[in-house]
Amino acid sequence: MKAAILHQFGSPFSIGDAEPKGVGVKVDVAYTGICGRDLVIWKGGFKNLKLPLILGHEIVGYYKGKPVAVYPNLYCGKCDYCRAGKENLCDNAIILGEGEITGGYAEEVIVPEENLIPLPDDKLEKYASTMDPVATSIHASKLANLNKDSKVLVTGAGGGVGIHLVQYLKYLDVENVYGLTSKSEKLKELGITPISDLKGEKFDVIFELVGSKTINDSLRSLKKEGTLILIGNVEGEPITLLRPAMSIMRQHKIVGSASYTKSEYEEAIKLIGEGKIKPVYEVYELEEVNEAYKNLIERKVFGRAVLKISQ
User: What pTM was computed for the model?
Assistant: First the structure.
């Protein structure tokens, strides 16, 4: 099969032939979203992964001629977390595209049949672009103890997760949603208040998508007893708290958000199918994967970048 293969961290992908590796049933891949996690892996941020790799876990395609999404967490189903319905925290989890399991930057994947989720329709690219960000939003929002009067900030609001998270917050009827981004006009069109810096603003909840570059500014803008939900660290660099005493004295809560459960992935797909969230994305051919990465790194992509693998 044809695949985009990463042979060296920080270097271009090569397009070549590969054998799909995995256990289960074969899915013909149609589209795969490019996740921020993929970018961190490409940069060498996951030191335990061995090359070569075929990345990609936001996969939609066809199984037995029917459109499906692939829940990307290959969970064990046996550990305490899995038995408690928290397979996102599975002790033995493997994410598609990491390790020896072939990901979706390829024409085929082999996955357990229980990881397949039927899609409501065959508009596959909208699901590839949106289901992972919306599922991430669902999970993170549950950790934040939000109400409709919460004043909320999303950093990196023009990115793949951010642009869908701000929409999900509005779907939850949170009235005061702000987005830290340079793409202000496009946020306004979605009814979100854009800001370009955090001077003078105070928030009840901050969803931190950027990580090391913005987290200290975010903490300075967090109210006493406020909550920061740490979702991403796009540079893959260590996070250093410059003023830990400030967060101690303000009784900040810093909560990590670990992806999503399968039921949250299914909920995201349902919301997308019902048109509750507007997918925001740009499509690239598989052979254009290096251009997509370049544009993502240079922040030229608004929303999610999606690879078109086949029709």
Answer: 0.93
